[in-house]
Each structure stands twice: as structure tokens, then as C-alpha cells.
# Entry
Amino acid sequence: MRLLGISWKLLRAMVHAGHGFWTIKILFPRLEQADRDARVHAWSGQMLRIVGIELVVNGIPPAGGPVLLVSNHISWLDILVIHASRHCRFVSKSDIRGWPVVSTLAGGAGTLYIERESRRDAHRVVVQMAERLREGDILAVFPEGTTGDGITLKPFHANLIQAAIEASVPVQPMALKFIDAASGATSFAPSYVGDETLMGSIWRTLAAHGLKTVVTFGEPQVPQGQSRRVWAHSLREEIERLRQV
# Structure
């Protein structure tokens, strides 16, 4: 019976992903940007419900842009969770462009891509981010650069924070965590770190019972003359505090 339940979740998730793919390919070219954003937001929330994850949002998401969201990074689910909390455009690793279906879904959500190992490409992306922020976008980045264990935060890379400084826009910290609804303890079901495989993480997520994700938005901050490295350190400390909420 347990296997049947997991298989049913997986089937429904695949159908929902297919519907998202169709929506982006067929409907998006005819929709205004606000309508596209609303559909991505609704689609993400429905996907969480299909796989059995309860979403809890603390704090106040940004009503509009321009703002740069900065978050810790735990799982492949993080982008879905944040989209379900507040639609935004992500800066993500370029590898995703080679993933079937996922690349279309990410592109439809307005993702910007970066070659993480290239300093020259990082500069290009910062310039592009600053342009999008000046035009009023809500962008989101994971300054850790990779997924963590959900317990401790990795050091924050400051490069992408420079975009907010150049565009003179606020940064809003946000904290993510996955917990067991019954005990309140950290859940490692969606973990995707180290040698863990994506399929293993997906299977654990689908098999988990009473999985809850908590998104906590902090107060927007302005640089106040801080360098990007000092600001990144300050944002990391604030996200650490928000994780305890």
C-alpha cells in the first residue's frame, strides 16, 4: 500500500509537470508577464500539495520589486517552495539548461543562468541582474552556491550581492527549512547534498509522511555603505536567526 501511494504521488506529479510544460510552450507566448507569474506561483503551490508538502509562510513576502531575495539552500525543492511563497526570477547554475522538461519549466519562470566556475560569467550575470532589478524585478539567489545539510549554513559568496548595490535596491533575507509536522524536528527527506542522488531525494520526499516546509521572510535591508562582503556576512547572520523562528 505504501508503494502504491508513492507511485500515485509520482504519477500525479509527472502529469502536473507535463501540464506546466504544455502551459509554457502553448499559452505563455500569448500571456502578459503578470499572468505568467501568477500561473507559475499557482502551479508551484499545487505541485507541493500533490507531493504532500505543507507550506507555511512567516513574515511578509515582497509586494513587488525591485528587491533581491537571499536564501539558504537545502534541496532541489527550494525553487519550487519559493515560487509557491512568492513568484520571483532565480539565478541558477547553467547545468539546468541541459535538463529535459526542467529547463523549459525554469525558462518559463524567467530563470537567469550563470557559469558558477567562471568569474567573467559572474560579472555578466551581475550586470544582467542589476538591469532586471532597475526594471522592477524580484530576483532570488542562493549565496551558498550549493545545497547544505539543513542544519548549518555554508559561507556566503558575495559576488551576486553586488547587483543590489549597483542597482541601489534592497535585499530581503529569507530562511527555508523542512520539518516533520508531527515532531517539529528537521526533516532530511528532501536533502540533496554530497553523494546523495536526485532520484534518491525525490523518492524520500514522496515517501515522507507529514512533511512541512517553512519559509520565513525577514525585513528588507539596504547596504548603508557596506561592502558586498560585509553585507553578505550580515545577511548570513540574519538568515541563521530566521531559521530559528
